[in-house]
Amino acid sequence: MSDDTAPPESGADARPWVSLFSGGKDSSWALHRALEAGSPVERLVTVHPEGDSYMYHVPATELAALAAESIGIELLDVRPGDVGAAGAVDSTAQGDAELAPLERALAALNEVWADRGGVGGVTAGAVESEYQTSRIRAMCERLGADLFAPLWREDPRELADAMLAAGFDVRIIQVAAAGLDESWLGRRLDRAALADLEALNEEYGVHLLGEGGEFETLVVDAPHMDRRIELEADPVWEGTRGRLRIEDAWLA
């Protein structure tokens, strides 16, 4: 197994890689870094959680298919319902249950790519969650694959600045934290928004990258995308939290 933050192997003899992908900023940045390093990413893998999830990005995962089309890499959809994850009674059990269909899908890819050595590695966008990263790392060990987690334990502001400098167009599509009101829905994550988030971090403890689920994002354009995603959406506010209801989406 390689260092989680070391660039993936590349070259003619490299085994094929997969990238865990939701369409949000963190998984998109991890994919971008892997592609920059020449990693042979041949599948994007999107898990579509049923309801709230301890393991995965939840909102608007159906838009990952549009993003994958723009990126030009085949998408593999994974549904947690495939193994009956519902019914887990605590976070540990739920996390393990949610991981099971992902591991099963990657094990199937191991078979498909058996003549090429199986899955060479997995790219993930985890920033600070030991809960998520420990499970993904253990899964990779069981599959005989490396893990590339380039955001892991990096400074949140430096990560955000790097995304913006690279040309990422990130939109906030869900909020659920004190200080984040309806005006944040659909807002672009730019330097002004980062300054506001830093102030909210001081006042309320909001994580600059929304790592605790304070907000969720969608990348509508980035250097590794051929066409940007256009949205038609309406804000939906429910007491102390809200989301963008996507009415339509297409590639420009």
List keywords for this structure.
single chain, 252 residues, alpha/beta, Rossmann fold, putative n-type atp pyrophosphatase, domain 2, 2 domains, four-stranded antiparallel beta sheet
How does the SSE layout of this entry go?
Blueprint: E1 17-20, H1 25-36, E2 41-47, H2 64-71, E3 75-78, H3 91-112, E4 121-123, H4 130-143, E5 146-148, H5 156-166, E6 169-175, H6 191-204, E7 215-221, E8 229-238, E9 241-251
Parallel strand pairs: 1-2, 1-4, 2-3, 4-5
Antiparallel strand pairs: 6-7, 6-9, 8-9
Overall description:
- It is a single chain.
- The protein is of the alpha/beta class.
- It folds into two domains: 17-148, Rossmann fold (3-Layer(aba) Sandwich), CATH 3.40.50; 156-251, putative n-type atp pyrophosphatase, domain 2 (Alpha-Beta Complex).
- Helix content is 32%, strand content 22%.
- It contains six helices and nine strands.
- It has helices spanning 25-36, 64-71, 91-112, 130-143, 156-166, 191-204, and strands at 17-20, 41-47, 75-78, 121-123, 146-148, 169-175, 215-221, 229-238, 241-251.
- The strands form two sheets. The chain has a five-stranded parallel sheet with strand order 3-2-1-4-5, with helices on both faces. A four-stranded antiparallel sheet has the order 7-6-9-8, with helices on one face.
- Strand 1 (17-20), helix 1 and strand 2 form a beta-alpha-beta unit.
- The longest helix is centred in the middle third of the chain and has 22 residues, at 91-112.
- The protein starts with 16 loop residues before the first strand and ends with a strand.
